[in-house]
Amino acid sequence: MFKVAIVGSGPAGLSAAARAAALGMSHVLLEKTDHLSDTIFKYQKGKHVMATPSNLVLRSDIDFEAGKRETILGIWDEQIAGHKVNVMLHAEVAKIEGKKGAFSIHLRNGEVIKAEAVVLAIGTQGNPNKLRCPGADSPIIQYQLDDPGEYYDEHITVVGSGDAGIENALGLAADPAQRNVVTILNRSADFARAKAANVALLEEAEREGRVIVRRETTPAEVRENELLLDTRDGQEAIRCNRIIARTGSQPPRGFVEAMGIEFSSPEPGAFPKLSPVFETTTPGIHVIGALAGYPLIKHCMNQGYDVIEFLNGNHDLKPADEPILAEKFARLPGNRSVEEWLEVFGRNVLILNDLSTLQLRELLLDSTCHAYEPGEVIFRRNEPGSSMFAIAEGSVAVEVNPADPSVTVPIEQGSIFGEVGLISGRRRGATVRAAEPVVALELSRTAALKLLATSPGAARAVNAISIERQLLQMFGSGLTREDVAPLVASAEVVQARAGQVIVTEGADDKDVFIVRRGSMIVEKQIGDRPVFLSYLPAGSYFGEMAVIDGSTRTATVKAAIKSEVIRLPGQGFLDLLDANPALRERAMKDMAGRRATNAFIESRKDEFSGAVDLYSQTAAFLVDNGIGEATDVLLIDEKLCIGCDNCEKACADSHDGLSRLDREAGRTYAHLHVPTSCRHCEHPHCMADCPPNAIKRGPDGEVFIDETCIGCGNCQRNCPYGVIRMDAKPPKKPSLLQWMLFGSGPGPGEAPYSWRKKKAEEEGVAKAKLAIKCDMCAGIDGGPACVRACPTGAAIRVSPDKFLTFTKLTEDAE
Amino acid sequence: MMATKAGGTGRFTQDEKRRDSDHVSFLKHRGFRWLWVALALCGTAILGYLMIDQQPRPNGGSWYGYTLGTIGFGLIVWLSLLGVRKRRITTGQWSLKAWTSAHVYLGLSLIVIGTLHTGFQIGWNVHTLAYVLMLLVIITGIYGVIAYATLPASLSANRKEMTRAQMIEALTAIDRQLESAAQPLERTEADLVINALGQDVFSGGALARLTGRYPGCATACALGGMGRQSEAEQRVVALLEKRREQLAQIRQQLRIRALLEIWLFIHIPLTIALIAALVAHVISVFFYW
């Protein structure tokens, strides 16, 4: 019987095991593969591993600092051996039974290990799906392919039709000198889950006979050097020495929940509920590391140390983040200790009420604390900002009327503000000042989203508040919370997928909608064709015309991208208008504008239907290319572009010598070209999964990556537009004058790879490959260099709601 | 609430103005601003030439001649700096499009300024050399403006959303297929395919590149000499036709790019020669004053 069994030998598990060994606690470290730290082991060769956050001290018995993957793994292997850690390799845990003091850990190979306590440090990678056929335990099956060049003269079958399977099959068949016979099995007739480029390569390889592709085929039985297949025309056996199974993986949640451990919410992003000593709802089982919500190596290692100290009875241990929190709180008035402040925030702020101390600490690490004097501006109208504020002490005043700052609406202690930026990604809608001395917490976008995913109570509260605020802001001055309360109560948030129709032309439903996030396009059927009327960004409302004058819908409104709209029942909206004549007047004025556009189209439809068509189709093309979620997009008029690539050169020369745009790549319609360049999305996909939280929205609305980037490449994979590249900062080039006069160096623009490589080798300092992307030339006077450096006026950066206006049709811009 | 206009100054206001913009070509920049400046300059120069009584006769050596010469010299030096502006990506509110626009119209105005500066006195000397060089530079520049105004649309149409790298990749893919498809062919036919595959895609020299005609194209030759009987031959012919189309796209791309750039190979060396001749012209004038 061990005192503690540690499952998983990543940074968290290693650190825990090393601590247990150092304390002389009886322990076992279980690792399912044949080596330690599998996630880092699987990084590509020579990858530079970063050590962020730099201000967090490392508290562990094993060392870690930024460096090459091999060096780090080498040090760990050596120190784990030095500490005499009791490691058990090939020990994959199937299930854990028992209770605190007497757990039975059942391994896949049938062995059972007994321990008083369990520390789960299994990360979030999950386990690969096994083949579901007899013989699935055969040793010829592997779930990963490290180096396709290792295998010779073999009959290899790849199971799985995703990108991983296709890439493995192509890799194994790449070199005919290896003389492998490679077969790939696909359960269905086409490769729908893989990237088009990979499918094309596979089909080419199939035509050339390099890979055998078997469609509508599944494995039936794995035998010795043979694989029995279920095909459309019956069973068939093929020769097979090795099977590579790439059929996806199971997230570890099911495995964890099977032990009776509760998660904070059913959301996919939720984490297990934990006590301040990392204990789950099943006493005796502790969770640390990425599975607990801490993806960074240093955090993981510190938790490994801490959890063993707690198990050893050291309950006075302060978490390693204590000094960071102390520093955060130092600027607040009142000289209170970290515990006291945590208590104040947790008790006073409504949306933080349900959080455990551990969760609160983590949230505060990702947040900023502010103290404001009465009258001090917290943020201004039209500033970009995606953070949310929570008032711990005091109250603030919102200037609801831009023309008259004296008209304000109060927000009281415990409530939140700034959530509109969080939800819609748009700029601040109003200026907010402190009304009395205020202590506020600013939650970064990621921290706030994590909070909403883990605390259902917080999500509900934020939702109700945001709908109320959006209504108040939309309808301007003169309304109070009481006025809109019935509407808020009856409002409903509706999710819309891209292309989903919200309002149909000619229908006689009467609801009013507010675009909460995403954007909408408005179309009108003229003859047999839909004509694009306008683009509605988040914050707009529509559908009010039918309510006010009782007519049928005059146009169709559909989602340009995945969006959220708030549906307000027409009757509630009418009641509100009846009670507020000023509001009715404004709605009527808005309506007049839309009616005029409709009438204009009707009157001109015969005269210039060609132009209307082109405009509609161009708009549709732009929306198809994701412009609906952009805030600032580079568009090239190919009637003007001479292909000089000065935009790319200018980009490289104003940003460390690497271009962040690819002019030629990308789609084109009617000579309007959308190059591969960041559009600064309202809800950037790249931000979704950044371990150090290095991707932010800057003061000019730009989405940028700061210096804490660890080069993991998640953002590059998450960006649907392929605008992020991973590269090392190149060495400095000789000056322009030296190039012009003496021809030294590669000249303006991005230096060729060979030059960069040679020069970097001469300098001898290996630099990590980090993520780089367009930052809209933030901090550079004059604005985006690509636009300034275009000699013919072909390149412009515009905002879609301004580019996609109907006025395009009526006035020739040139 | 639709999009809101922001008040205040600074980067946000600049950005809002920029985001509200539209594609406007360098020729129409700011409602032909530089065209009007150039026309005003020419008009003033002509008016001055006609109104001012130059003694003994209109000449580069009169005070008005010196004035025109100084303006012309200054313009030429400034116009030649476009090459530096284009490559020096400094901060600040400059736009290369505005520079190009000014370059075109002020460059054209030199025809008037320079000609009036000569006082219509032409001879076999370094002064006339500078004048002729200037005219040649301007003529090549006019070609450049026409090329920039007319060719980009066809460049875009020919590209069909493919990048240069993708065009080459597509060709490589066809070549790989051709190589294996040609295995069953007879010796003579196989040689035709080998020739086609072996030929440098970019061979043919400057003339071929500018005209788009490649008389020695081995792919066209192979298509001509290939039989159409067997299944293997038909496969190879189909692939050769694909290869010919892909080559045509690449060659058309090269041709348009060459037409867009060829004039710079004359315009810029001539500009350097012009500046040298101008320096000689100015020095000789002052030397023999």
Could you please describe the fold and organization of this structure?
The complex is a heterodimer of chains A (814) and B (289). By secondary structure, chain A is of the alpha+beta class. Helix content of chain A is 30%, strand content 24%. Chain A has 25 helices and 43 strands. In chain A, helix 12 crosses helix 13. Chain A is globular. The model of chain A has no long low-confidence stretch (mean pLDDT 86). Chain B folds into two domains: 30-87 and 94-155 and 263-287, no CATH class; 160-261, no CATH class. Chain B contains 13 helices and no strands. In chain B, helix 5 (96-118) packs antiparallel against helix 6 and helix 8 packs antiparallel against helix 12 (231-261). At the A-B interface, helix 19, strand 37, helix 23, strand 43 and helix 24 of A face helix 1, helix 4, helix 5, helix 7 and helix 8 of B.
What's the SSE blueprint?
The complex is a heterodimer of chains A (814) and B (289).
Chain A: E1 2-7, H1 11-23, E2 27-30, H2 38-41, E3 48-49, E4 67-68, H3 69-82, E5 87-88, E6 93-99, E7 102-107, E8 112-120, E9 127-128, E10 141-142, E11 155-159, H4 163-173, E12 181-185, H5 196-207, E13 211-214, E14 218-223, E15 226-231, E16 234-239, E17 242-245, E18 249-250, H6 253-257, E19 285-287, H7 297-311, H8 322-330, H9 338-348, H10 357-365, E20 367-372, E21 377-379, E22 388-393, E23 396-399, E24 408-411, E25 416-417, H11 419-424, E26 431-434, E27 438-443, H12 445-454, H13 456-474, H14 481-490, E28 492-496, E29 501-503, E30 512-517, E31 519-526, E32 529-537, E33 541-542, H15 544-549, E34 556-559, E35 563-568, H16 570-579, H17 581-604, H18 609-624, E36 633-637, H19 646-654, E37 662-669, E38 672-676, E39 695-697, E40 703-705, H20 714-718, E41 725-727, H21 736-742, H22 753-763, E42 770-772, H23 785-788, E43 795-798, H24 800-803, H25 807-810
Parallel strand pairs in A: 1-2, 1-8, 2-5, 8-19, 10-17, 11-12, 11-17, 12-13
Antiparallel strand pairs in A: 3-4, 6-7, 7-8, 9-18, 14-15, 15-16, 20-27, 21-26, 22-25, 22-27, 23-24, 23-26, 28-35, 29-34, 30-33, 30-35, 31-32, 31-34, 36-38, 36-43, 37-38, 39-40, 41-42
Chain B: H1 11-19, H2 29-51, H3 63-80, H4 82-87, H5 96-118, H6 126-150, H7 152-159, H8 164-181, H9 187-198, H10 205-211, H11 218-225, H12 231-261, H13 264-287
